[in-house]
Design goal:
With 242 residues, this protein is an all-alpha fold. It has helices spanning 4-9, 12-27, 55-82, 92-115, 120-142, 149-185, 208-211, 233-241. The protein is elongated, with a radius of gyration of 26 Å. The termini are close together.
Length: 242
Amino acid sequence: MINVDELRRMSPDERAELACALAALEASPREDAAPGPGVPEQPGPRTESDLPGNPRSRAFALVAVIGCGLALAAWIGVLAVTLPRYYRSGGWRGAWVGFDLGLLVTFAITAWAGWRHRQLVIICLVVLATLLCCDAWFDVTLDLRTNDFLVSLLMALCVELPLALLAVIGARRLMRLNIRAAGRMAGLAGRIPPLWKIPLYGPGSRGFRTLIPAEPCPPVPGEPGRATLSAGPALSAQGASE
């Protein structure tokens, strides 16, 4: 058994390797070990019915999203045929002032969530990117063939769309950092796969362990997201003590 003096003589890398191996043992219990009396087994979800929530609700939501998409596609075709080319609208000031107020509130909440390090910032960044893209689209299309078209186009290309891109990149980066942290807590390590390949419910859901290798290890310097497992002095000392 390794004592405190032996741990002090280890280098930081050796202690990190040992801590990683111990975390893997805690996260991956022995298959032949039976649970103690009164302790129910808690296997990870393996089927749709084992996942959190109601399977019927998830199926209904999926059907509703698909149905809305089909209905919207048909409605776009109707609008493309029936809408007039030019139209004098009412409430122009209220529409744009209200939209910009919503954009201002989104900026404020995003700044607060980022300052306080809250998970809410991911949702805020996605909403912010969406509103900025909408702002750029309507500015450019509604100012077409007017004296303000060039200004709107420059604002879209130099301000609104770059900010939207930065918001999307920030949201993606934060999601991947959360996934990496969750994987380490579950005893997983390796390169994070694309977001469209990762199951919805994270480390406990089916398919996650097939995407991220199950060998925990310290990250390789200079290669974030990658890891290796080697039989270093720390593991060798542990094996010799056993």
